[in-house]
Specification:
- By secondary structure, the chain is α+β, with helices and mostly antiparallel strands.
- The protein has two helices and eight strands, in the order E-E-E-E-E-E-E-E-H-H.
- It has helices spanning 91-107, 111-134, and strands at residues 5-10, 15-21, 23-28, 31-35, 42-45, 49-54, 60-72, 75-85.
- Strand 6 (49-54) and strand 7 (60-72) form a beta hairpin.
- The model has no long low-confidence stretch (mean pLDDT 94).
Length: 135
């Protein structure tokens, strides 16, 4: 049996995944990079994108947003602000939320509400942009 890479995916709420895998493709800020067993140590900021966990024939794909990845002798740890299985993402719901956010921007009564609405809109635009690339 070939050696495996120990991989952990952590969000602010909980440990989402802790398993041994063949390879993980990470959406780094400077581009995607693959991590195999015995990879050189590295730390990278994540960009919003698709994280692929390879363990067998079909990779498991997750949308990740924000955070960083660290490769060390123990394996790979990805700390993501947000991580969602690609198969569970409801594009129509995201588009509806984007419409609501744009209405909130138009209706903002002060700078605080405007800044919050812009933050929500920017997050949704980022996620939908990634979904457009993988569609």
């Amino acid at each position: 049996m070939a050696e495996k890479l120990h991989f952990e995916l952590v969000s602010p709420e909980k440990l989402l995944m802790s398993t041994d895998v063949d390879m993980v493709v990470v959406p780094g800020i400077e581009g995607d990079f693959g991590v195999l067993i015995n990879h050189a140590p590295v730390v990278s900021t994540l960009r919003t994108g698709i994280l692929e966990v390879h363990n067998g024939d079909t990779p498991e794909k997750l949308l990740v947003r924000g955070g960083f990845a660290e490769v060390n002798p123990e394996g790979l740890t990805v700390l993501a602000e947000e991580a969602l299985p690609l198969a569970q993402i409801d594009r129509a719901a995201l588009e509806s939320q984007l419409k609501d956010a744009e209405e909130d921007i138009a209706d903002a009564k002060d700078e605080i509400h405007l800044a919050e609405a812009n933050k929500v809109r920017d997050r949704l635009v980022e996620i939908l942009g990634v979904l457009d690339l993988v569609a």
